[in-house]
Amino acid sequence: MISMRNTLIFLLALTITSATSSLAIADGGGSSRDSRLAPWQKMIAAEKYEMAIGELQKALSKSPDDADVLNLLAYSQRKLLRFDEALVNYQKALQIDPKHRGANEYLGELYLQLGQLDKALERLKVLDDDCFFGCEEFDDLKEAIERYRSQNAS
User: Fold this and answer.
1) Is 127 helix (H, G, I), strand (E, B) or coil?
2) What is the pLDDT of residue 33?
3) What are the tens digits of pLDDT across the range 71-95?
4) Which one, 33, 50, 92, 106, has least CB within 10 Å?
5) Is residue 115 in a domain?
């Protein structure tokens, strides 16, 4: 027989799981679950970065404070090795939303590309603080940092 305590624990776990799922969807960190971002994400997935940049810049002209769009723009710029532009746009995204998971992860990856491990670790710390139950962005950046360390071990 299930005790009242076990029932309450189950309901609490279910509530927490539901809440974290809702947070992931609402996060807007470039998640494929955000249909508003889907057209640009498809371009990026197809490695059509120049096309995505043009479309994202149009979107920003209408909505310059959209951290999700800035994040995708910076991601596309980073993939084209336009690091200075990407850095500016990740920083803009984080000025708007300091806890933006996608921008924190990808900025950390940019810092690794620039050889700035200390700054990548700062982004990892932000994600660690924000992702109480863990999140994909934290896991991905942590893995990238581990790869970086193993490739750059003396």
Assistant:
1) helix
2) 53
3) 999 999 999 999 999 999 999 999 9
4) 50
5) yes
Say how far apart CA 67 and CA 92 lie, in whole Å: 7
Tokens 């991601």, residue located: 75
Query: φ, ψ for residue 6 (rounded to 5)?
Result: -65, -35
Q: What is the CATH number of the domain that holds 81?
A: 1.25.40.10
Phi first, then psi, for residue 82 (nearest 5°) are -95, 70
Domains identified in the chain, total number: 1
3-state secondary structure the chain: CCCHHHHHHHHHHHHHHHHHHHHHHHHCCCCCCCHHHHHHHHHHHCCCHHHHHHHHHHHHHHCCCCHHHHHHHHHHHHHCCCHHHHHHHHHHHHHHCCCCHHHHHHHHHHHHHCCCHHHHHHHHHHHHHHCCCCCHHHHHHHHHHHHHHHHCCC
Q: Specify if 21 maps to a domain.
A: no
Query: Does the global pTM surpass 0.90?
Result: no
Whether residue 91 lies inside any domain: the answer is: yes
The tokens describing 45, both together, are: 């997935």
Residue 124 sits in which domain range?
Answer: 41-151
